[in-house]
Amino acid sequence: MLSIGELSRATDCKVETIRYYEKIGLMPEPARSAGNQRRYGERHRDRLHFIRHSRQLGFRIEAIRELLALSDQEHRDCAAVDALARRHRDAVDDRIGALCALRDELDRMIKGCAGGDVAHCGVIEVLGDHRLCRNDHPLEAVAGKQ
Amino acid sequence: MLSIGELSRATDCKVETIRYYEKIGLMPEPARSAGNQRRYGERHRDRLHFIRHSRQLGFRIEAIRELLALSDQEHRDCAAVDALARRHRDAVDDRIGALCALRDELDRMIKGCAGGDVAHCGVIEVLGDHRLCRNDHPLEAVAGKQ
DNA sequence: TTAAATAGCTGTAGTCACTACAGATAGACG
DNA sequence: CGTCTATCTGTAGTGACTACAGCTATTTAA
Asked: What sections of the sequence does the record tag as coiled-coil (chains A, B) (predicted)?
């Protein structure tokens, strides 16, 4: 039986995060010691590994909930899992595209700025006037929403 | 003089967001009508354009605060602006790299999943076992923190 | 055995950049 | 004058944690 600290070290997941996952129902409530401390088994550890790895791959909590439900089924619906993973990959792809466009825009902006103490700062100018930009950059694709 | 709704349409920025920027001190308090409604001038519109465009380019609010302070100076410190923009571009670059690695990982995972009703679902397997992964994927670089 | 050090408990609030609402007032138009 | 839309303030919600306060449990050393 693992204490929450041992589980934390075993999964590289902070203690607070483990309790948070329990609160939102992503991790099941574990057994308790006589003094009311959490005691975890292997199943908990495996599940937390699954969750953490999914998060590292950028899946959202709600997607992970679905993945867990699918993986718990007797006869796994692999097609559904596959679809979820593909959707996520495509979303990541879109984000990469948006960020590349953004980087190019930033690059152009920086190149227009010579550096030094001048009244005509290219960067400031571009920031103040969208028309100096080559393309649109929708905020959503850039911000961390995935 | 523009009402908050007119400014909103002129800058493609929601009314609530304008009030939010005022509350956090990013936009100055405007004049008021007899009935206590906000009335904006050109300077406000220019400043909000600057803020929105900077946000679209992924700058954080605190960075925009700095950019605004720098752009307000009599003798602009263009080098400081340049450095800020470069730091931001480099951060975007790092994120692109992380997301590309992530997408490749997702691709490999999806390829290992044939689809259908099988006990050995490649995706679920990989998610449960980090060792089946090629590389590390630190959560921070992937999550939308910028 | 006991004291100290470490670990764990619950509950709440903070992060970021908004967004959404509720309940009130202002202004524009016919 | 009535109606409709716009605006007002203030608060709470979002996602996925993180941090803290004030307490209790457990472990280790003396």
From this structure: none
* Contacts of residue A58, Cβ cutoff 8 Å, sequence gap at least 6: A88, A92, A146, B102, B142, B143
CA A75, chain centre distance (Å):
28
Strand nucleotide closest to residue A58 (CA to C1'):
D16
For chain A, give every domain's residue range. Answer: 4-72, 78-142
Average pLDDT for chain A: 86
Q: pLDDT tens-digit profile of A72-102? A: 887 778 888 889 999 999 989 988 998 898 8
- What mean pLDDT comes out for the span A63-80? 87
The end-to-end CA distance of chain A, in Å, is: 36
Strand C nucleotides, any atom under 7 Å from protein beta carbons: they are 7-11, 16-21, 25-27
Q: Which CATH class is domain B4-72?
A: mainly alpha
Nearest to A124 among B71, B95, B100 (CB): B71
